[in-house]
Design brief:
The chain is of the alpha/beta class. The protein has helices at about 15-20, 40-50, 55, 75-80, 95-115, 130-135, 135-140, 150-160, 165-185, 200-210, 225-230, 240-255, 270-285, and strands at about 5-10, 25-30, 60-65, 90, 120-125, 145-150, 185-190, 215-220, 260, 265. It has two domains: about 5-230, TIM Barrel, CATH 3.20.20; about 240-285, no CATH class. Helix content is about 50%, strand content about 15%. The strands form two sheets. It has an eight-stranded parallel barrel with strand order 1-2-3-4-5-6-7-8, surrounded by four helices. It has a two-stranded antiparallel sheet with strand order 9-10. Strand 4 (about 90), helix 5 and strand 5 form a beta-alpha-beta unit. It starts with a strand and ends with a helix. The model has no long low-confidence stretch (mean pLDDT about 90).
């Protein structure tokens, strides 16, 4: 998931265009981009689109950013999107592991009510100082947590911190990346709000890639190609991953924990990464 394009739920004229675009994943938004009086209607519009033939025949991963737990819209959002078309629910404003466990339990109830048999994962936003401090606990809170997504706009605005400071951005990225690594969950980068600043987007995305993030949120289709380029370069291709895993089995049978492949020393961390790439590819095939 190199790129994830945000699409406001109140803008149905953009839905089909986003689905036909180059983003790996579409993230329909019911939270910040939708005014309070439009949230119920936006929910209906997204749900209608997800039932369309275009979505049914698409290979894209579908994510929905629902409204926060405790909001008047949370339960309705869960009931609308606990369905097979949705791969992940993006959970905003989580402040603790208990928040995540509560959301997971509510999602399980919604799935049972809807007769949905495929568990939906959670992509949990880290967008407050408290959430960043507790990120390791949040990442490990429940098996449904697939990854954490950094929300720099909310985080830095609440701190009155400068988003343009590379040191500030790196500090937040690093802390969340370590939390994800500890639990084996993926780290996903924040959106970059200045659509015209392509160099700023590239600089921030490359910093995230260097820290092990798998992709970056996009607020405009113009940003998608950059995200695909930057994070695609970091992706281990499936053929190479298969060769590493096969060579590791041969090496294990020969009693060797490390081995050379194409002149490169391969040991356990590289093998685990290759196995993760193959597992992710199998998950994508099932979506």
């Amino acid at each position: 998931m190199r790129s994830k394009l945000f699409v406001p739920g109140s803008r149905p004229e953009l839905f089909a265009k986003a689905l036909a675009g180059a983003a790996d994943s579409i993230s329909f938004d019911l939270e910040d981009s939708v005014p309070e009086h439009s949230k119920a209607r936006a929910r209906e519009q997204i749900a209608d689109f997800l039932r369309s033939g275009a979505v049914q025949s698409s290979a894209k991963s579908i994510i929905v950013r629902i409204n926060a737990p405790g909001s008047a819209h949370f339960e309705g959002d869960l009931m609308a999107f606990a369905c097979p078309q949705v791969a992940l629910l993006n959970l905003p404003k989580a402040q603790s592991a208990d928040d995540v466990r509560g959301a997971a339990a509510a999602l399980e109830r919604a799935e049972r009510c809807n007769g949905s048999t495929r568990p939906i994962g959670l992509l949990v936003n880290i967008e407050t100082p408290r959430a960043l401090r507790l990120a390791p606990e949040i990442a490990a809170a429940h098996p449904r947590v697939a990854g954490l997504q950094l929300g720099l706009a909310d985080l830095f605005e609440s701190m009155h911190a400068d988003r343009r400071s590379a040191a500030n951005v790196h500090a937040a990225m690093f802390q969340m990346a370590m939390a994800c690594a500890e639990s084996g969950k993926f780290a996903y980068d924040s959106a970059y709000p200045d659509v015209a600043d392509t160099e700023g987007f590239r600089r921030e995305a490359e910093q995230a890639r260097q820290l092990g993030y798998v992709g970056k949120s996009c607020v405009h289709p113009k940003q998608v190609a950059l995200a695909n380029e930057i994070f695609g370069a970091a992706t281990l291709d499936i053929d190479t991953a298969r060769r590493i895993v096969a060579a590791a089995k041969d090496a294990a049978q020969a009693g060797r924990g490390a081995f050379l492949l194409d002149g490169r020393m391969i040991d356990l961390p590289f093998v685990k990464r290759a196995e993760a790439v193959l597992a992710a590819a199998n998950d994508s095939d099932r979506l």
